[in-house]
Amino acid sequence: MVATSSDMSRGDGAAVSAGTMPVREGSAFDEVRLQRWLEENVADFAGPLAVEQFRGGQSNPTFKLVTPKRSYVMRRKPPGVTVPGAHAVDREAWVMTALSRAGYPVARVYGLCADDDVLGSWFYVMEHVEGRIEWDSTLPGSTPALRAAHYDAMNGAIAALHRIVPNEIGLGDFGKHGNYFERQIARWARQYIADPDAGRDEAMDRLLERLPSRILPDEAPRIVHGDFRCDNLIFDPCAPRVRAVLDWELSTLGHPLADFAYHAMVYRLPADIISGLAGADLAGLGIPAEREYLDSYCERVGREPLAEPDWAFCIAFNLFRLAAIYHGIKGRMIRGNAASLHAQTRANNFPLLTRMALQILEEG
Length: 364
Known about the structure:
globular; 11% strand; six-stranded antiparallel sheet
């Protein structure tokens, strides 16, 4: 199967996003026109075509395209007016095509359609990768040995991504160069300050003051995924091996430690936030400790072991970024634009994240 998770704040009840369903009202399109486009642009395509919609992929609606011979996956920009720069399915197709050619585990992209006249918005079609997705970071139903192997596979996959030199695979201009942490902190600070409906938070305000003074030195940019989690990976059904990394919507060029710390932030979070591991019996489960996991990554990418204050900054930065997203959700909920149970949970968790980030930054 293949699935996506285009909301980096998801994790509370994420398994409801598994599987497919009939195409939602409001997401329908002309399937005859799609089949005609597939016949003209995808080698060896043969209908008839049946369309299902993945339950995940809310930001860019995602569909399973089923034919008698094989299945495909389509990611589509939502129809209608969208925020400039958001829902950039062309960037997803671009980075996945380059990574596939470099031998990195992603789904093969068969084609991108940048003609709104076909379906009403841009879309791309990619390979349907068979395998399984783990929605829970504790990997329930597994054994300690298999959990250790799966975590090692995840570690190896993100390290392999960060070893790639963007210029060498045609991604040298995939994002801005330099000052990644500074730009990110400024971006999320602006978003936080620009939403008075959600109110101010003392710990968040202190983070705005203190984070800039702790920024790590710049280094050569790498491709950062932006949402590297166990539920954005397709594992081999029979072995602890990553067959494909999903959901490249947030990818860009940036500091690799920011990307890895977002992935490892799960160690600090409670179970109801991105399926966190805080409080879990890691040794009993067979999951490596956080420092062991970090050291393994550093060894794989050829980096010296990271000093604790620098690692604390990376974790605090990602908690700050997640808190800014939850603050935005809180504002939308107050304005009546986000009424789901998940929205309420995330709004309630906003101050928890800011306090965690500030404590880690100060103690680190």
